[in-house]
Amino acid sequence: MALSVDSSWHRWQWRVRDALPQSPSEATPLLSPEKGRQSYSVTQQRVVFPNNNAFHQDWAKVSRRYPGNRICTAKYTLFTFLPHNLLEQFHRWANLYFLFLVILNWVPSMEVFHREITMLPLAIVLFVIMVKDGVEDFKKHCFDREINCSNIQIYERKEQGYMQRRWKDVRVGDFIQMQCNEIIPADILLLFSSDPSGICHLETANLDGETNLKQRRVVKGFSQQEVQFQPERFHNTIICEKPNNHLNRFRGYMEHPDQTRTGFGSESLLLRGCTIRNTEVAVGIVIYAGHETKAMLNNSGPRYKRSKIERRMNTDIFFCIGLLFLMCLIGAIGHGLWNGTFAEHPPFDVPDAKGNFLPLALGGFYMFLTMIILLQVLIPISLYVSIELVKLGQVFLLHNDLDLYDEDTDLSIQCRALNITEDLGQIQYIFSDKTGTLTENKMVFRRCTIMGSEYSHQENAKRLETPKELDSDSEEWTQYQGLSFPACWDQGPATVRDRGGSQPLRRSQSARVPIQGHSRQRSVGRCEISPPPVAFSSPIEKDVTPDKNLLTKVQDAALWLESLSDTRPAKPSLSTASSVADFFLALTICNSVMVSTTTEPRQRVTLPPSTKALGTSLEKIQLLFHRLKLLSLSQSFSSTAPSDVGLGESLGTHMPTTDSEERDDASVCSGGYSTDGGSKSSTWEQGDIPGVGPDACLEAGLGAAAPGLAGPELCYEAESPDEAALVHAAHAYSFTLVSRTPEQVTVRLPQGTCLTFEVLCTLDFDSVRKRMSVVVRHPLTHEIIVYTKGADSVIMDLLEDPARADTDMERKVRKIQARTQKHLDLYARDGLRTLCVAKKVLSEEDFQRWASFRHEAEASLTNRDELLMETAERLENQLTLLGATGIEDRLQEGVPDTISALREAGIQLWVLTGDKQETAVNIAYSCRLLDQTDTVYSINTESQETCESILNFALEEVKQFHGPQKPDRKHFGSCLPSETPPPTLGAAAPEVGLVIDGKTLNTISQGKLEKKFLELTQYCRSVLCCRSTPLQKSMLVKLVRDRLRAMTLSIGDGANDVSMIQAADIGIGISGQEGMQAVMSSDFAISRFSHLKKLLLVHGHWCYSRLARMVVYYFYKNVCYVNLLFWYQFFCGFSGSTMIDYWQMIFFNLFFTSLPPLVFGILDKDLSMETLLALPELYKSGQNSECYNPWTFWLSIVDAFYQSLVCFFIPYLTYKGSDIDVFTFGTPVNTISLATILLHQAMEMKTWTIIHGLVLIGSFLMYFVVSLVYNATCVTCNSPTNPYWVMEDQLSEPTFYFVCLLTPVVALLPRYFFLSLQGTYGKSPILRAQKIDKLPMDKRDLEIQSWRSRQRPVSVPREARSTHCPVPPVPEQGFRASTPKSSRPTKRDWVLPGERGSRDHIKDDPCSGDSSVTFSPREHLLLDPHRMVASGAYSGGQTNANWPLSGGSHRRSQSSPPLTV
User: Which residue of 160, 575, 648, 672 is most buried, as measured by CB atoms within 10 A?
Assistant: First the structure.
């Protein structure tokens, strides 16, 4: 199509000006009339013209508006470094204060020191920080230069081809050609891929840390290119959204010359920083470049926060300023009073040029400013530099702690925020995610239920629980092998077992791979067993031992597939065989898993294995399957009990336990409803299996079934561990995913035949819908089938109403749904993650109508997400339930011990998760978040009135247990409320736990019930929030942080935890299998939750103790030294003069007393690591701010005043009446003060190493060396004063030695006496632990055991608990509470008035392991759906009348029957 040079640009401007209606392709019922007219704005949308001959001038005009691809992460340039850095440093008010003093000292009438000398301390501080910032920024410049100069192929219009250019030359609208293993330079819209299916594979490890490959698809209409992409033939205009930081969201459309549009989304966008994998060539057009790319918009860099100590320090500096103001005021008044004693002006009072003298008031004001200059050191300017250096040293020690290094991932701790290390020692609340944080996020297939029949997979459970190593002899595990099909099935790739068999595995084996640059290579030599090359593919996740009972059903399903034909049955049937086949087909197809080979580099499998389809008749295939059936029956597993036995035992019910009854269940489910649509086909997809005759061996026939599969082993690249677990489970039953492309997916059936399904549409999983669907065309029946899997809370609402069927069918469908719900509840109580699987058959007309709606929604730029959601809801309804799965997310190693230790440390742990309540509660018990003896309150309601009443009831009850006083969480951070015993109990009160869901949290926030909620949580040692959204997680953290003023820590591993991590005082990200989003937003990054124990209890305690005591010491040191000058003013007429040389004063803080506090702040240990880990309650000292609080601050100030008095007046009284000069008097005063301050530092040190000794002795000796050299060489350095030979003369005087030895002893004697009394009679746990720490190892262990036995709380007697359980004052028929008769979990369960007796019908169902209560429609309140059940007793779950919510217990068979009060 011939276009003028400016045609596109003017046409676009014309459309914007006149706001013409959209093209006819968007005029659909999904678009309202208002949406049909769309205007464009450069400020709201991005318009991209291609850089080719047809659009070059348009591109040149528009591209000027967009930045280039050059990036700069550095702060400064060569010209802006000095002013910019100084401006940043003077944002600190302390630096401004000292700059003000420097300027003030330049005023002649107020000059105290030489002008240059006054500038020196500030200049040194600014210079040190400037050098540090400059080095860091130079490293960023080098990194930026390396990135910007990377090479890439860019299409050049003049050369009509791709030329090698640098990344910084890329512009928006350029065509980029990338090769395999190249890094993407900008955000690029994919237009061509060498893959025949139009797929490009990405590795996003550099962006989000995920090592599994992602698929990106060519924009629709460009995927069928058989030759190379021709940029000159691209005549389309791209309109998309403005740059934003949403990695997984992108929308736009491509406008063709005929004004039709093609929509695209994030599935076609290649993000900067990702790596091309398994794709030879990919071509795209640049959409966002440079700092507008999504990767750069998400790169916020290290976070800088103000620590609690820093906030406290700023407050104390204000006190120091007040003290300085008072001392200066005294000096000014004293100066006026001194001058008033003279009858005439003294000779040193010099008049001005006119002979006038300053008035007394003005002279006093000048003296006030002079005293500020003189006493300026009272504000410790060097403290800020020292704190930064100490924190760098602490971070270095953290990085080099081998206990915080994880061998599996080759990752150590990362400190991204360098200025809050001490806050690690003051945490009071921890908010943790569950999946991937407490658990490994390694999903292991455990159980499944199909059409109401449960398969417990007990052999698989035994394999997972066997604590054997991987290198064990394979012969020992033959009992776990060959459980799937007869032995001849194990010869080919269709075997159930992977390489190595289904051997028991180590729980600690990780599926993660290290992230090192852009390489996918694994580090070698770190451990005996190298991690697998892809995520979610460790043997513990891949190997599944099939359930023997289900294997027979799978064989029947294979025979059923064989019998399919094009003839549709007159009446659909609900057969077990068809449901099993559809169930495993759904597990195999309904996912986004990609198939590749395990070779390096991995090659993606896109085509089904080649099978010959020549001449073999259907009768031969039927004969083969009949032989297979006979063989499987002859080798039946007679020793295997049906899996429903396990279900019956676990539920405590009398469920069917025989094969005949299972077959009866299947017959009950039959009745003319075909789950696959009922269509049958007369031929197999791939024809016949070659080489198989009627008399051929079955092994030979199966071995030849798929000759093309004898190549490399298949490898599954999954985006989530759940998908990988389900695909591996289907593979264990020989439903093997062989290849996947956007248009088709190939599945190998148990008999070896491959079926290729045409993929018509894929609805990806999202957190709103909580489900995923795939629309395929069945290759045998040619029907359009929707396979859906998702959360049970969502899928069960979308099932087809059984009432539409006949009575018999309705009864059977309801029975299947009810039994599936019971199995789901069982899985949840076992802590398994549940997914429901369903299907739906569409007619051709319905699908075409829906597809047109979907296409228009994808092409829409406004409200695109809402329209896509609407189309998904139109498709995903009236589903037929196939079954459900239970997947175990295994606890990380050390999680229970870590949580127990953190609780002993006085830290309250909240778990905020999006999982269902039953699953979360059982994980809470298994990780010791909740204990068996705890009283657990569960609140689930959407009514504000009900929520308020329940909070009041719970508060009243816990107050009767724990006394009326509220615990003080603000300062002490204790887990328990007040230790005041309840009036009716002599023993300790029971622990309290709280379980709450997301809907209740909304009710609390909307009903202004936060105060009561927080009051209740302060009595709870653990809080569990289920079904919570990321926004609710962040809200809870802010609520506790702001309302309780507590120190909070959030820890998570996924993108849904980012808001919670950023809201807390300290955010910790776990570099797990959900990517690096949490790490990029965190202050610290660790690889295991168990590392939190040492990070907080040891390093947190050390960092806080070191830094807090160093800050207190700095205040003491400066006040003590400055007061020497202040006392001298009383003897010099408040003239502002000093008895110490100016350079000696500068050297005092700069050299002589600077190193000891740094060593003290980095290396000092008040307690050993072993003691801190053995006695976690020692952590409470940091929570209580015992090392640095107002008491310790003012005590150090008073001590500094006393020591300064002693250090000044003992030399003064010694030399009183002598004729020594000023500096001769000042030198012993300076020497005494230095010795006193260094000895004070030595008394504060708890650890003595050679470094400590060398630094202290070296500082003292440096003073004498510098003083001797300075006094010997400086004759006229400080005219008119002369310090020449002063130190040399003093060293020859015995009086000097006597004064220097006596005075520090007198000055430090009160401090020593106080420390001695504290060590002898002190009751502080820290002091006691320090005594234990000095004992020999055997005695120390005995003392620690004795300590822990005394600290162990006294358990509440069972009789006392049962008898004296307080009851809230509510009507008798309106409250029901369960109280324990033994040490079992206790639950409080409230039932609203008018609902009593609604549980009676539950007893009629012997199969119910849990029960349900039906509320009236006006009161659809779920107060406590999770009651404990006794063996043979029922549990009281409550259900909304509109939706049967899952009930269940927290622990099966571990509670007494309910007691009605």
Answer: 575
| Alpha-carbon distances, residue 413 vs 301, 418, 419, 1083, 1094 (angstroms) | 16, 13, 16, 11, 12
Whether 1349 contacts 1386, CB under 8 Å = no
Tokens 């000027």, residue?
64
List the one residue out of 633, 448, 460 whose CA is nearest residue 555: 633
Dihedral Cα 1119, 1125, 1127, 1130, nearest 10 deg: -150
Distances (CA, A) of 973 to 36, 606, 1010, 1047, 1068: 58, 58, 19, 9, 20
What 3-state DSSP class applies to 380? coil
β-strands 175-179, 281-288 pairing? antiparallel
Secondary structure class of 1318 (helix, strand, coil): helix
d(CA 1065, CA 417): 11
C-alpha distances out from residue 693 to 631, 709, 1018, 1455, Å: 17, 21, 76, 63
Alpha-helical runs (H) found in 1050-1100:
1058-1063, 1077-1080, 1091-1094
Residue 733, exposed/middle/buried by CB under 10 A (0-12, 13-18, 19+)?
buried
pLDDT digits (tens, 9 = 90+) for 633-686: 333 333 333 334 333 333 333 333 333 333 333 333 333 333 333 333 333 333
258 included as an active-site residue: no
How far apart are the C-alpha atoms of 879 and 796, rounded to whole Å? 9
Task: Report how far apart, in Å, the C-alpha atoms of 93 and of each of 126, 384, 701 are.
Answer: 13, 11, 85
Q: What is the DSSP string of 915-983?
A: S-HHHHHHHHHHTTSS-TT-EEEEE--S-HHHHHHHHHHHHHHHHHHH-SSPP-TTTS--SS---PPPT
239 vs 1350: CA distance, rounded Å: 71
Question: CB within 8 A of 428, min separation 6: which ones?
Answer: 906, 907, 908, 969, 973, 1046, 1047, 1048, 1183
Considering only CA atoms, which of 513, 438, 511 is closest in space to residue 1090? Answer: 438
For tokens 């580090």, name the residue. 523
CA geometry: angle 257, 262, 268, nearest 5 deg: 125
Q: 444: which strand partners?
A: 888
d(CA 828, CA 849): 39
Tokens at 369, concatenated: 């400013």
The string of DSSP letters for 250-271 reads: -EEEEE-TTS-EEEEEGGGEEP
User: Which pLDDT tens digit goes with each residue over 552-567?
Assistant: 888 888 888 877 754 4
Q: Which of 408, 433, 1053, 1424 is catalytic?
A: 433
CB 774, CB 853: distance < 8 Å: no
Cis previous bond, 601, omega within 30: yes
> In 399-530, where do the E strands start and end?
414-415, 429-432, 439-450, 453-455
1214-1242 tens-digit pLDDT: 999 888 888 999 999 999 999 999 999 99
pTM over 0.85: no
